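The following record pairs a protein chain with its ligand, guanine.
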Amino acid sequence: MSARSLDGAAAATAIRASLADRIARVTTALGRPPTLALVLAGADPASEIYVASKLRTAADAGCRAELFRVAADGRLDDVLAVVRRLNADAGVDGILVQSPLPKAMGHDAEQQVFDALDPAKDVDGFHPVNVGRLAQKRARLVACTPSGVMQLLAREGIALAGKRAVVIGRSDIVGKPMALLLLHQDATVTICHSRTPDVAALACEADVLVAAVGRAAYVTPAFVKPGATVIDVGINRVTDPELVARWYPDGHPRRASFEKKGSVVMGDVHPDVWDVAGAVTPVPGGVGPLTIAMLLANTVTAAEARAAGRPE
Ligand code: GUN
């Protein structure tokens, strides 16, 4: 392991600290703290953990965060009704509806929910107005994970102008906004996806490689130019002992952790990539903490816009 570890947790702490003054000022202006409403439909265990973490982090930072639940057997209309109520509530600055929604709500439930959000309160940056503003390089609220990655790259002094960036994954949540943000910093950007032939050959050209595939250890050393910066957005829970044994040598701390818990969380990047890359974000502790820090930043931005009387 020779690559530098990019410490997302430290960057997230710095971002949260940098918000303190803004939170104090906007709290005075509004006569209440910046307020985030989280909507959770169902009881997906991973979503429960993410939402609890968002609530805790927001409260620790001096924001108000409230959880609104919809039952697992609720209908999409129930979620939409909560969103409309929160849109109309002047005491709410930001709204986040946790994905995934229960499957029974339909395949396009999430898009319907994002479309229903007031763009000024869309702290996920998923509403078409916010996506369009990002595409035109005049974004106000940007998807949290990709904007967190940009913060990390800037703080680590990793140059982008004139560099080759490759994003593996084309999701609305990470891949597409990530590619736009890199483009806006003058990188030459390639997006790879499930239908791209020979992803490794393209990835190998990257000075900055972003893996947002959702497949454990997908990015092997064959994908990585020596010295490249590798950003691992994946969070994959691996339960197959054979895979864990293949990826982590005997005596590796992850092996011991797996023996104890029966699973291990790893990213999209194979552990051997650390021998080739110049810098890598670890999982956990890399991109994950930045996502929540940027959610807070977006909530504060939305609250400031409200205090300034700027609707959207
Ligand atoms: N589920 C996993 N990540 C996210 C996210 O960034 N926003 C929302 N709304 N749901 C998620």
